[in-house]
Amino acid sequence: MVDYSHSRIVVILSLILSSIHFINLYLAQSFLWVPLGICLILNFIYITNDLQKFKSFSRSMQIPIYLTRIVLSLSLIIVLLSSIASLINISLLLFGEGSTDLLIFLCISSILLFGSSLGLIKKLFV
């Protein structure tokens, strides 16, 4: 059996970065913190619980499984975008503007975050 602990670490990092962006949006008094908060809660439930538990819960609430998959996929994409936005904000604070190190760091980190989100979306449809 293959151990995917490296992917789990990236997913947890993505949730942490999205939580930082959530706090920044709340402090900036933007209303975008509400959908991001809902997406964070859905993703946290999806990541910590088994997918079969999530599917059985949606069946018990009489929610079609395709709707559950669409909502979770959109939620994962929203959290991915907010984690990349938070990563950009943090890296601009650390490196400053106009640094080529910043571009390389952002590209590698964004690819890692994108890969982990894509893996979770793929897990939804298997």
From TrEMBL:
Transmembrane residue ranges: 9-26, 32-49, 70-96, 102-121
Keywords: Membrane, Transmembrane, Transmembrane helix
Stated name of the protein: Uncharacterized protein
